[in-house]
């Protein structure tokens, strides 16, 4: 994972450094509590994988590999939108830590956290409007609608053991893949690329996003709380039934009892994780993620010169091998 990430980040190292500087400027507000909440989020770090993808796509489609100021701003907007969604996710999931530090609602309260998330969405919308590109505005605005759709779908299927892999993939698209897909497409729009290229990179982002979410859900089962930056098994505890559990149910129907009990005891979550690990569910989930990675790679290799797709291929492998 480190090898892939170092190689990827090297080509956009300067842009990512400036992105981190700009993010703090973009969340400026006269309200000290809102600013403190927003600053806390960005100072917590994170992989910046979403803006990195935007920057790499921008670099790839530009004639001289130079990223335009508008595309750099889009990368920043993408990260602000993502961060805003995390604030609301943490409230809904009652998550106490994120990236190893206390969550906003845990430091302040739910009201401040909701307002901080809303503030970030509002700031992203303002900067988006200032790109002065209606098609980009339409494309990126769809992300926020999809976030809401994903949360509703997740909410109505909490602890629902009838959820299918198809349901899970649809929800994962709304909650994760839509942001990456639409951001990739918007990057090509800013470059005045034709509709075929816009569609290709929308699909590339969609499959990368789905793979990213599946790997995240595997890590929730097999990683430690220290590595995750949040409690392991939090998806199970919150009733968010993900690919590993859905596949495990096919082999171990006794998991249904724990789901029906809504993992009410701490030992229930540990027991469920142990059962899942003793099935083929993790491997099946990895195969599903690999399928989406291969679909993303196929788009690049089928239509574009391999000479210029190195970084985009590397980020595809990086997402897959975060698990190692």
From TrEMBL:
Keyword check for Flavoprotein: no
Keyword Protease: no
Bilayer-spanning residue ranges: none
Gene Ontology BP terms: isoprenoid biosynthetic process; quinone biosynthetic process
Listed InterPro entries: Isoprenoid_synthase_dom_sf (IPR008949), Polyprenyl_synt (IPR000092), Polyprenyl_synt_CS (IPR033749)
Gene3D superfamilies: Farnesyl Diphosphate Synthase
Entry cofactors: Mg(2+)
Domain of life, per lineage: Eukaryota
Swiss-Prot/TrEMBL keywords: Chloroplast, Isoprene biosynthesis, Magnesium, Metal-binding, Plastid, Transferase
GO MF, any single term: prenyltransferase activity
PANTHER family xrefs: ALL TRANS-POLYPRENYL-DIPHOSPHATE SYNTHASE PDSS1 (PTHR12001:SF69), GERANYLGERANYL PYROPHOSPHATE SYNTHASE (PTHR12001)
Annotated family: Belongs to the FPP/GGPP synthase family.
Protein name as annotated: Prenyl transferase
Organism per entry: Thaumatella adunca
The encoding gene: preA
């Amino acid at each position: 994972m480190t090898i892939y990430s170092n190689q990827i980040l090297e080509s956009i190292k300067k842009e990512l450094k400036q992105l981190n500087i700009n993010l703090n400027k973009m969340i400026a507000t006269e309200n000290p509590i809102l600013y403190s909440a927003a600053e806390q989020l960005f100072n917590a770090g994170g992989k910046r994988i979403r803006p990195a993808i935007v920057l790499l796509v921008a670099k790839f489609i530009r004639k001289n590999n130079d990223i335009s100021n508008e595309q750099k701003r889009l990368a920043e907007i993408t990260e602000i939108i993502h961060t805003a969604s995390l604030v609301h996710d943490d409230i809904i999931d009652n998550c106490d830590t994120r990236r190893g530090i206390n969550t906003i609602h845990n430091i302040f309260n739910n009201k401040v956290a909701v307002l901080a998330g809303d503030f970030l969405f509002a700031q992203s919308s303002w900067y988006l409007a200032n790109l002065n590109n209606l098609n980009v505005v339409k494309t990126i605005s769809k992300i926020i609608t999809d976030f809401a759709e994903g949360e509703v779908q997740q909410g109505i299927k909490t602890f629902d053991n009838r959820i299918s892999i198809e349901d899970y993939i649809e929800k994962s698209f709304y909650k994760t893949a839509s942001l990456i897909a639409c951001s990739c497409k918007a990057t090509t729009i800013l470059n005045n690329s034709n509709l075929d290229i816009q569609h290709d990179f929308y699909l590339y982002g969609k499959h990368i996003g789905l793979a990213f979410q599946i790997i995240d859900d595997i890590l929730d089962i097999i990683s430690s709380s220290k590595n995750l930056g949040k409690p392991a098994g939090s998806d199970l505890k919150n009733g968010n039934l993900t690919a590993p559990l859905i596949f495990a149910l096919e082999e171990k129907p006794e998991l249904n009892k724990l789901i029906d009990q809504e993992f009410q005891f701490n030992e229930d979550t540990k027991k469920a994780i142990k059962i899942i690990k003793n099935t083929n569910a993790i491997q099946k989930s990895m195969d599903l993620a690999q399928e989406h990675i291969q679909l993303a790679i196929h788009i690049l290799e089928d239509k574009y010169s391999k000479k210029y797709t190195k970084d985009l291929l590397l980020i595809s492998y990086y997402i897959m091998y975060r698990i190692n």
